[in-house]
Recover the amino acids of this structure.
């Protein structure tokens, strides 16, 4: 079985980020803000090197927003 990754429906190439920032919404799209629970989130596609790198980049960019020490309004000021 090949590895897969969940991507968002918004563009079918942005990896969904697993997070506990949003109550009951474990997956979040850093491009459009989509949130979903763990079942039925996004689209499963084959994992590629490009998607793997994209996910790492998005996770790094999103760290300030997804931090449990950051309120949503604080992130908007940056």
């Amino acid at each position: 079985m090949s590895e897969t990754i969940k991507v968002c429906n918004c563009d079918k190439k942005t990896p969904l980020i697993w997070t506990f920032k949003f109550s009951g919404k474990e997956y979040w799209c850093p491009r459009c803000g989509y949130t979903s629970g763990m079942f039925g989130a996004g689209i499963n596609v084959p994992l590629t090197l490009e998607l793997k790198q994209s996910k790492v980049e998005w996770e790094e960019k999103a760290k300030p927003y997804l931090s449990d020490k950051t309120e949503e309004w604080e992130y908007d000021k940056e």
User: Anything to note?
Assistant: The chain has one domain: 4-76.
